[in-house]
Amino acid sequence: MRIRTALSVALLAALTACDKAPPSEAGNVLASAPVATNELMAGNVAAPAEADGKSAEAALALTRDYYALIEAKRFPEAALLVRNGDARKLADKFGKYRALRVSAGPAGKMEGAAGSIYITVPATIEATNADGTATTIEEIVTLRRVNDVPGSTEAQRRWHIEGVDAAAVNHRRP
Hints:
The protein is of the alpha+beta class. It has a single domain, classed as Nuclear Transport Factor 2, Chain: A (Roll). Helices cover 31% and strands 29% of the residues. It contains five helices and five strands, in the order H-H-H-H-H-E-E-E-E-E. It has helices at residues 2-19, 37-42, 56-71, 75-80, 87-94, and strands at residues 97-104, 111-113, 116-129, 134-146, 160-172. Strands 1, 2, 3, 4 and 5 form a five-stranded antiparallel β-sheet that branches. A hairpin with a 4-residue loop joins strand 3 and strand 4. It is elongated. Residues 1-50 have low confidence and may be disordered.
């Protein structure tokens, strides 16, 4: 009986650890409200306004927050917003540019699949290299949230960035 109790406690502890929100969602306004890059860099981030966390606007806000972090070259924090995010890959991809300016949106149509809702958001990154070369990078951000089903956690019912895929890269001289 002791072994069964110990195994039950260990299993419960493991499941509880899996349900914890990533650091980006635990009291961080970046996961719930859009933030302008200059406000983010200056640390002048106000408390987020109440928003419908299920809406396309909430998914778009998370996408914009992700790119605000990239513009600010805060790659470790940006990586936390992406499932299997890798700060080193973000730094390798965007760290070489002298300046970045990102526009994201509009959000696509929400689609359901297997108890989840998915939405895509296009993003365009205008990057300036040290030599003045201009590059436009187009990406598609896929976001996911679990439907309000019994047993789902609050963290699962928030939008998460599932992945970011390259759509196009165009180089041009000034």
